Amino acid sequence: MEGFTALFDQYDVVGAFWVNIQLAFWAALWSLILGTVLALMRISPIPSLQWFGAAYVNIFRNTPLTIIMVFGSLALWSQLNVSLSSDFTTNFFRLAVLSLTIYHAAFFCEAIRSGVNTVPLGQAEAARAIGLGFLPAAGLIIMPQAFRGAIAPMGNVLIALVKNTTVAATAGVALETSSVMKTMIEFSPNLMTQIFLTFAIGYVIIVIPIGLLTTWASKKLAVAR
Fold this sequence. Notes:
By secondary structure, the protein is mainly alpha-helical. It has helices at about 1-10, 15-45, 45-60, 65-80, 90-115, 120-130, 135-150, 150-165, 175-185, 190-220.
């Protein structure tokens, strides 16, 4: 037990979780914005936008996140010289956020679209009948109700995003949880079970409140039909 507690003096476990929480926060924010735009494309009356939205979702939803992460760090940075910051650590952090955003925006798009399907068709027809165009009708009538109906599926996407931040090590983020756990196990293999349980319990502590909050919000904000 003494050797296990000494690991916390040697490794910054809390700091590693904080890096993953920051990755999840920024990726969730940008994914939600991009996913909303994609959802609007998918329900728009313009066929080319519908096609683009569907193509984006089908391509990135079916591409492994690890491949997108590796592409961001190796292709964008080392081959195409795309840099998001002059600071080495910040650059890889932002590339990881970009990769997480591109991947999870497809899932946020489908979650929001599932919320759109809960809005009665008659409301869109009524909006058109009073002269509202697509964007005003979507912004004022459809999307506010769609978000309220999509809280639970978006919560599931957010939980998956939090856990997927462990893949950020492949994008060069060195101080996140999976990298720290790997190093701890490598130098203290006799404590492998305790180390594994520490990180597993850490993620459970982060994820359970998200699930409880989104479940509560989906019931509290559900649109009465």
